[in-house]
Automatic annotation (TrEMBL):
Source species: Gopherus agassizii (Agassiz's desert tortoise)
One Gene Ontology term of the molecular function aspect: organic acid binding
GO cellular component assignments: blood microparticle; haptoglobin-hemoglobin complex; hemoglobin complex
Keyword Protease: no
Assigned keywords, A-Z: Heme, Iron, Metal-binding, Oxygen transport, Transport
InterPro entries: Globin, Globin-like_sf, Globin/Proto, Hemoglobin_a-typ, Hemoglobin_oxygen_transport, Hemoglobin_pi
Record-annotated Globin domain positions: 2-114
Entry-linked Pfam families: Globin (PF00042)
Protein name: Globin domain-containing protein
Gene Ontology process terms (BP): hydrogen peroxide catabolic process
Family classification: Belongs to the globin family.
Superkingdom of the organism of origin: Eukaryota
Ranges annotated as spanning the membrane: none
Length: 114
């Protein structure tokens, strides 16, 4: 499945409406992730994972920043996020099961699973 031009335009429009809130949404997203999937906390042993911590805020901002990059590069998401993907797959060794949402971000592009 690939996105139509209309669907791409909708993604860009939605991102335009939420981009100004990206930091807060990133923090909230991580808090929800850790609440719903506590096993993911093991990837952050050095973080203060308490609600609203500076480290959660910082990483949440990075996560939403990556989504912003994906939106900016909607025709080449895989290329735009390749370095980040390699970091998580080969250096941080994050289990791919934790990235089910990334299938949405790739919008039907073929992604090599590692």
């Amino acid at each position: 499945m690939t996105l139509t031009q209309a669907e791409k335009a909708a993604v860009v429009a939605i991102w335009g409406k939420i981009a100004s809130q990206a930091d807060a949404l990133g923090t909230e997203s991580l808090e929800r992730l850790f609440s719903s999937y506590p096993q993911t906390k093991t990837y952050f042993p050095h973080f203060d994972l308490s609600q609203g911590s500076a480290q959660l805020h910082g990483h949440g901002s990075k996560v939403l920043g990556a989504i912003g990059e994906a939106v900016k590069n909607i025709d080449n998401i895989t290329g735009a996020l390749a370095t980040l993907s390699e970091l998580h797959a080969y250096i941080l060794r994050v289990d791919p099961v934790n990235f089910k949402v990334s299938e949405f971000l790739h919008a039907g592009q073929r992604v090599k699973r590692v």
